[in-house]
Design brief:
The complex is a heterodimer of chains A (about 325) and B (about 160). Chain A is mainly alpha-helical. Chain A has helices at about 5-40, 55-65, 75-90, 125-140, 145-175, 180-185, 195, 200-210, 235-260, 275-300, 305-334; strands spanning about 105, 110. Chain A is built from eleven helices and two strands; from the N terminus they run αααββαααααααα. Chain A is globular. Classes of the chains: A mainly alpha (about 325), B alpha+beta (about 160). Chains A and B meet through α1, α10 and α11 of A and α1 of B.
């Protein structure tokens, strides 16, 4: 293990991941606007370049040139740093996603994930908790009642839905026999885990939507409820960065769903080249992202107390039941 | 929440998603305005036109009915005697000054309804944005010139 293995390759991988995620975020905003428009029988943005492809650039341009007002009574350092914390947590969550089998370049074996750690399945949950700080502290430091309320709502929601998410992942670990992401993907070589764990998939998907504050669970940040929720006092670039954190969370969550339940990078013809493996996981991620936008275009927002009740009184018992049934079946079949 | 209710709820959500998916494959109803012409009905009321008759004389005889009926008082008419050798209009008088204040006009069409000679008509030119209030006080010459609106008239 020389300096190239320990330093250069991780740095290059990190740069590729960060730049890739940022570009993916930019075009995810465009994809969402165009898809939401098409679901509503209208065109999405199509003025800023052919098919609106330059729209994210024009949005970034606008955000940069907006006047940045920092209210006078905020806790300055926390206020400024919080969007960065949220985005950092979102990007870090991508670290355990495997994009393919290890490849050999210039005589060195390079794994196609940032780190295939032993506790890969626990990592996204831990990082989600860490990202929550970005929201809570952002809402608190804004020195504004509505921001604080939005932040508290968001934290209660994330907390409530982390439990079913964790239980769904535990059921997954029971079926696979390991917490490592690489093992989970390897176990799906024949059949994707969605067929073995349909209820687990549903629980994970719904909890994932609640975790990333995504419609229909986006009360913490709705425009017509709490102004902009925890991001009320943020403008310009800082707001764009919160926005970026949410979308990158969405992209990472889609990658995780694709990896854990839809078979990861497996697919026909995947033994020929790592590029085909990467293409497969990207295709599955796009399908999940499409489903997120589809659900947002279809369902109205859920009332806060109803979805809290749903999370605590329905999802957790369901996840526990799923875990018990899975464990019994696995033991019986062993 | 019972299992039955959950399954029923899930099925309803999936049906709703089916409806949205169906809309995904329909043609969007957006009209791309600057490139495509807007389809308007034949009696669509937009910018006024002062018309002339077959002999080339102006129809407006400066009776002042349009100015009297206008709810906003946007029209100003000043009459002048027709020179018998070089008549401007077909009657005794002609409109020496005829101004419509477009910042006050509400496009109701009463002036068009009340005009006895059919001089004032509301045409289809609706792209009337301009850069100053002075430019928006339309004089007679401007109203006499026909406009070429970017519209297609619906045939119904």
């Amino acid at each position: 293990m020389d300096w190239i293995d320990t330093l250069l390759i991780p740095i290059i991988k990190a740069l590729i991941v960060i730049i890739g995620l940022l570009v993916a975020f930019a075009y995810m905003t465009l994809l969402e606007r165009k898809l939401s428009g098409r679901f509503a029988q209208r065109l999405g943005p199509n003025r800023a370049g052919p098919f609106g492809l330059l729209q994210p650039i024009s949005d970034a341009f606008k955000a940069i040139f907006k006047e940045e007002v920092i209210p006078s009574e905020v806790s300055k350092w926390i206020y400024v740093v919080c969007p960065g914390v949220a985005v950092a947590a979102a990007i870090i969550g991508f670290a355990v996603v495997p994009l393919g089998e290890p490849i050999t370049l210039f005589g060195r074996t390079i794994t196609l994930s940032m780190g295939d750690i032993n506790l890969g399945l626990l990592f996204p949950i831990a990082v989600a908790g860490f990202g929550l700080y970005g929201i809570i502290l952002g809402g608190w430091s804004s020195n504004n009642n509505f921001s604080m309320l939005g932040a508290l709502r968001s934290s209660a929601q994330v907390l409530a839905y982390e439990l079913p998410m964790g239980l769904a992942l535990v059921s997954l670990a029971v079926v696979v026999g390991s917490l490592r992401m690489g093992d989970v993907v390897a176990a799906q070589a024949k059949v994707p885990l969605i067929l073995l764990q349909p209820v687990g998939f549903l629980i994970y998907f719904i909890s994932g939507m609640a975790e990333i504050n995504r419609s229909p669970f986006d009360l913490p940040e709705t425009e017509n409820e709490l102004v902009a929720g925890f991001a009320t006092e943020y403008g310009g670039i800082k707001f764009a960065i919160y926005f970026m954190a949410e979308y990158i969370n969405m992209i990472v969550m889609s990658f995780l769903v694709a990896t854990l339940f839809l078979g990861g990078w497996h697919g026909p013809f995947d033994q020929f080249s790592p590029l085909i493996q990467i293409a497969w996981i990207v295709v599955k991620t796009l399908a999940v992202l499409f489903t997120f936008v589809w659900i947002r275009a279809t369902l109205p927002r859920v009332r806060y107390d109803k979805w809290m009740k749903f999370g605590w009184k329905t999802m957790i018992p369901l996840a526990l039941a799923n875990l018990v049934v899975t464990a019994i079946v696995v033991v019986l079949l062993a | 929440m019972s299992i039955v209710r959950m399954v029923k709820g899930l099925i309803q959500i999936l049906r709703a998603m089916g409806v949205t998916l169906k809309h995904l494959f329909t043609r969007p109803v957006t009209e791309q305005y600057p490139e495509e012409a807007v389809a308007v009905y034949p009696r669509f009321r937009a910018r006024h036109d002062l018309r002339c008759d077959e002999n080339g004389l102006e129809r407006c005889v400066a009776c002042g009915l349009c100015a009297a009926v206008c709810p906003s008082g946007a029209i100003f008419v000043e009459a002048g005697e027709n020179d018998p050798d070089a008549p401007v209009s077909a009657g005794e008088r002609y409109a020496k000054r005829y101004e419509i204040n477009m910042t006050r006009c509400i496009f109701c069409g009463y002036c068009q309804d009340v005009c006895p000679t059919g001089a004032v008509e509301l045409g289809h030119e609706f792209a009337l944005a301009d850069y100053g209030r002075d430019e928006l006080l339309y004089s007679k010459e401007r109203l006499l010139t026909p406009a070429s609106p970017h519209v297609t008239v619906k045939q119904d």
